[in-house]
Amino acid sequence: MTPYLRLMTANLFNGRARPEAIAQLIERLEVDVACFQELAPEQAEAIQTVLPFGKLDPRTDHEGAGIALRHPGQVDRLPLPDRDARVTHLDPRDWPLLDTPLEVVAVHLQAPHGNPPPWITLPRRRGQIAGLVDYFESVPHPHRVVAGDFNATPLWPAYRRLCQHLTDGPHALARSRGRRPSPTWGPAFAAGRRLLRIDHIFTGGVELIECTLHPIEGSDHSALIADLA
Question: For residue 21, what pLDDT is reported?
């Protein structure tokens, strides 16, 4: 068992990531909390064999999502335009590594490109970011982690707006070590090469002790793993 709470976020490429590879990665790294985007049914079945708690909502239309947990915790939907986030509150009574409650929010922002066209996707993105910010302001929490596929690099307005309320944990950790955080996404034809950093872990009142990237066979995203103090 790791001495810290270990969190993972991973986009599973709408079922293309190999289910067994996902489960093996979770088991090998002893992940405690996992946030998923583009989750398909076979992947959800494999994940539940190693992280039996939480709630997964698999689909085959890029909209599958959920939070898987090692220990008990209720997962609820956080209503956002066209694509809800998920939120769970971890209680120290059920989580031996915690000495105070922790909130985890799992996010998958609408991509700005593709189908539907930008005049539809961009208003959706703005609405989703506005919904998140409204939630952060109206429901404050002293220890909050917001993780997922934001479809936004640090140059995008969506990223910058979230940074007004939360800390980009991997960036802060890398900067403290004189480094830059690594990219997390690369197109399917790039054979594992990562080009852009669009998967993020934002924190409020939580410190990242370590952060690493791990490829998932079949996915165009790497899994982002963070140890939380």
Answer: 96
pLDDT band at residue 88 under the 50/70/90 scheme: very high
Between the CA of residue 165 and those of 11, 101, 205, what are the distances in Å? Answer: 24, 19, 11
List, as one string, the DSSP characters of the chain.
Answer: --SSEEEEEEE-GGGTS-HHHHHHHHHHHT-SEEEEES--HHHHHHHHTT--EEEEE--SSS--EEEEESS---EEEE--SSS-EEEEEE-TTT-TT-SS-EEEEEEEPPPSSSSS-HHHHHHHHHHHHHHHHHHHHHS--SSEEEEEE-S--TTSHHHHHHTTTSEEHHHHHHHHTT--PPP-B--GGGTT---B--EEEEEES--EEEEEEEE-TT-SBEEEEEEE-
Helical pair 41-48 and 19-29, crossing angle rounded to 10 deg? 30
Phi, psi of 163 (to 5 degrees): -70, -10
Strand ordering across the sheet containing 5-11: 53-57, 65-69, 33-37, 5-11, 222-228, 208-215
| Token pair of 49 as six digits | 């064999």
* Domain spans of the chain, in order of start: 5-228
Residue 111 identity? A
CATH topology (fold) of 5-228: Deoxyribonuclease I; Chain A (3.60.10)
- Per-residue confidence (pLDDT) for residue 191, from 0 to 100: 66
Distance linking the first and last C-alpha atoms of the chain: 15
CA distance 197 to 185: 6
